[in-house]
Amino acid sequence: MENKVSFYNTLTKKVERFIPNEEGKASMYTCGPTVYHYAHIGNLRSYIMEDLLEKTLRYVGYDVKRVMNITDVGHLSSDADTGEDKMLKGAKREHKTVMEIAKYYTDAFFADCAKLNIKTPDVVEPATNCISEFIHMIETLMQKEYAYESGGNIYFDTSKLGDYYVFSSQNEKELLVGVRDDVEEDANKRNKSDFVLWFTKSKFDDQELKWESPWGVGYPGWHIECSCISMKHLGEQMDIHCGGVDNIFPHHTNEIAQSEAYLGHKWCNYWFHVHHLTDKSGKMSKSKGDFLTVSLLESKGYDPIVYRFFCLQSHYRKPLEFSYEVLDNMSAAYDKLVKRVGTLDRTGTPDKEKMASYRAKFEAALCDDLNSSMAVTVLYDMLKDDMTEVTKYALAESFDEVLSLNLTTAHAIREAENKVDAGLKQYVLAKIEERTAAKKEKDFAKADAIRNELLEKGILLEDTREGVKWKKA
Ligand code: AMP
Ligand code: ZN
Predict the structure, then answer these.
(1) Which domain holds residue 454?
(2) CA of 432 to the centre of ligand 1 (A)
(3) How many angstroms is it from 289 CA to the middle of ligand 2?
(4) Closest ligand relative to 254 C-alpha
(5) Residue 253 forms part of a structural domain
(6) Residue 448, domain member (yes or no)
(7) What is the pLDDT of residue 168?
(8) Which of 153, 165, 414, 429 has the fewest C-beta atoms under 10 angstroms from its C-beta?
(9) Which of 224, 228, 169, 225 is nearest to 11 (CA)?
(10) What is the pTM of this model?
């Protein structure tokens, strides 16, 4: 098949044509969430754009296998192997066990993904499933003398590599080394940039999850999981590795160091990174009090898919600032779009030539460094073009395999919901009238019975000065 997809490879700092290791196939690995809290919509921007890449590859004909880890152990609050384990922090905050926290937030993550039409990867593997694989990789690194034991912990020796800072230019390297100068020093390390593969000693010894290892009871460092889990499912040569830009250093840099030292050859050819979503105050963070989640958007009345629409309108290599004002505009545009598609006449047969020509334009936009806003423009152009409605409908359905905006289904669902709402409103108002009459006649038992009847149906009544108000519970 023709290799026509191109995207920016952080490793070569160029937009490159994607050529897989195996003709017609694409192996993809995605750094999954650290499940100590809800994902914020910034995290989800990364997953939306990675989903778009996967679906683009599938659309043009690749057989994709995508793997994702779930970080449920080892991710400390600082990238410099110091601080508290984020999972333990979550467990303490909520007075639960680490595994309860992991289960709850893993489920919440996939529920959010479902609302945003993010496909679940073919393989999802929690880090705590693979401890024996981590130990095996670390043992091999020890045998090959890429790793050493010091103060009870096992560290990766970055000085053994010709080029540790693989993603960075000379200037950036100097900056990174400078930054590391400020980092609180771990006296066990031979070099500042060395990182932990296995902890047996740390600043906190109440770590809940610990395992036996050749170096004593302990737990893995954060980076080792992605190397092991990707190799377990995708083999020793991988096509694409994804993540947000904050993963470039140190996480992905360390993944490459340990993977290639272990394998003795190049590991992954393409590195796809999504830039950050910011809010007015700067970078989004889970440690900030009221951070933005899908549930928060829903509670404010937004359809979560509008957030996906918002993300698709900007390029994955540009930072994106979130604001409710822009989301409101997106919401209005989305309503119009799904109404337009949902009311197209579907009788007749689609025009094959028009279909092929528009599919080619749509593919060209996505294959050109995943130009999602251009792909949306192709959709709008197509809807304006002079062709049969059934052709437009078929094209919208086809484009939605990648865009995943519920283009053909949202309108009908909304109409049905409106009908239900209109029926419900009529019923509730009649009951309120009946209750008011009962109260006037001092039949309080009947008035209470009506209130309870509504409550059972999920309707809350509130007596206010302006009269009786109601809402769904
Ligand atoms: P975490 O759950 O912190 O491990 O992060 C999950 C994913 O979200 C990683 O790929 C991060 O690189 C990515 N990420 C973190 N913050 C943002 C942000 N503000 N915008 C986009 N992606 C982010
Ligand atoms: Zn990772």
Answers:
(1) 412-472
(2) 48
(3) 25
(4) 2
(5) yes
(6) yes
(7) 85
(8) 429
(9) 169
(10) 0.89
